[in-house]
């Protein structure tokens, strides 16, 4: 159907890949813990928007430029790494004066509008060229060789992957918010948690900056 093959295997593989921890998951958990599940869902929707950009770019052949051009890959990679480092530094050097809302939040973090959180998620995902290369490497394996419209098959598979990813991301948002409400963390511990998460974001940024196309 639509030129796809082994659809069940694609769905299972996609779910396992979405569950794997990364900067997207960490952003959702951080926002859910600090501002509630709606903030986590806003981050998830932004991530989904970024994924759609990768899907359609790959279907149109634009992502192939990132896979074959060292210059283009490096430019996007460094921009994405810089953004992750920026987010990590904001958390790592969060001020002690920030209020901790122990009734609804376990992490001291500035409250952002849902719009800003959405774009945080969008940029975290869309500025990661490894995601573009991943789609080019993973999705074509599930497109039938005799598919009449391979671009359409790619988009269909990409949308299925993104839909399943959104299910997981929103589940992560809700469970993270629920866990934060069940916990009461004092200010000192919360600040250290912020710093740990900030360090993880910085490590993701460094890893991305050093990443190769393969």
Explain briefly what this protein structure is:
The protein has one domain (23-93, 100-209). It is built from nine helices and no strands.
Task: Enumerate the spans where pLDDT stays under 50 for 5 or more consecutive residues.
Answer: 96-109
Q: Please give the count of helices.
A: 9
Please state the structural category.
mainly alpha
Strand content: under 5%
Question: How many domains?
Answer: 1
Major sheet details: none
Helical percentage: over 70%
The string of secondary-structure elements, in order, is HHHHHHHHH
Radius of gyration: 18 Å
Outline: globular
Span between termini: 31 Å
Averaged pLDDT: 79
Record field, number of beta strands: 0
How does this structure look, described?
The chain has 214 residues and is mostly helical. It has one domain. It has 9 helices and no strands. α1 packs parallel to α8, α2 runs antiparallel to α6 and α5 runs antiparallel to α9. The longest helix is centred in the C-terminal third of the chain and has 33 residues. It is globular. About 7% of the residues have low confidence.
């Amino acid at each position: 159907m639509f030129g796809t093959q082994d659809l069940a295997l694609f769905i299972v593989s996609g779910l396992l890949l979405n569950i794997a921890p990364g900067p997207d998951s960490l952003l959702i958990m951080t926002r859910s813990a600090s501002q509630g599940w709606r903030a986590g869902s806003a981050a998830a929707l932004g991530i989904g928007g970024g994924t759609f950009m990768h899907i359609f770019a790959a279907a149109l052949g634009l992502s192939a430029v990132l896979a074959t051009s060292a210059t283009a890959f490096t430019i996007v990679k460094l921009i994405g790494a810089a953004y992750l480092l920026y987010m990590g530094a904001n958390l790592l050097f969060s001020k002690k004066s920030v209020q901790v809302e122990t009734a609804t939040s376990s992490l001291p973090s500035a409250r952002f509008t849902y719009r800003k959180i959405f774009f945080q998620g969008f940029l975290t995902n869309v500025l990661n060229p490894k995601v573009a290369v991943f789609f080019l490497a993973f999705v074509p394996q599930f497109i039938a060789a005799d598919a009449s419209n391979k671009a359409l098959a790619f988009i269909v598979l990409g949308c299925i992957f993104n839909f399943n990813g959104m299910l997981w991301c929103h589940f992560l948002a809700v469970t993270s918010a629920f866990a934060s409400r069940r916990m009461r963390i004092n200010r000192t511990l919360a600040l250290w948690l912020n710093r740990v998460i900030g360090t993880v974001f910085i490590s993701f940024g460094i890893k991305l900056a050093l990443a190769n196309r393969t």
